[in-house]
Amino acid sequence: MQKNLPELQYELLFDFSSIEQACRWRPVNDVIMGGRSSGTICVSNENVAVFEGFITPKQGIGFSSVKAPINNFSFLGYDGVCLKMRTDGKRYKFRLIYADDYQGFAYQHGLEIQKGEWREVHLAFSNFKPCFRGQQPANAKLLNIAQVRQVGLLISDRRAGAFKMECDWIKAYQEK
Hints:
Blueprint: E1 8-14, H1 19-23, E2 26-29, E3 38-43, E4 49-55, E5 64-69, E6 80-87, E7 92-97, E8 106-111, E9 119-124, E10 129-131, E11 150-155, E12 161-175
Antiparallel strand pairs: 1-12, 2-5, 3-4, 4-12, 5-11, 6-9, 6-12, 7-8, 7-11, 8-10
């Protein structure tokens, strides 16, 4: 017997149909901590965001990320986020960020899908884990979605090499 799945209602956050959508995203690479990795985000001819670059691990550091403000949007009343994405098969993370600077906590959820396959991935807020500079802090509180100011994408596997992730859109969702 198949379990009845809840009906979902969506609110579009990013659809990358214009260059303005990609211009809201900013790279944050490990160079801020002495690393040498690089990563950028742009909009392709197919109107999808392309997050790509090269990880160059150095002394335990090796990450690249991009983040964007959500401006006047609030996640209150929503149950999670959904992304339509395709990757190179590497492990990525989606992040919810409180602060407008680099010093605040982030809450993240892993993104693992097969290489080259477009997928819609639903990430429930209840499954996000706290993170501060790559570590899970012992004193972290539960995610407070009312404090989220930015969203981001991250690759932090510390493995040397090129990476590429494509994202068609990002939506907030709520169960009806």
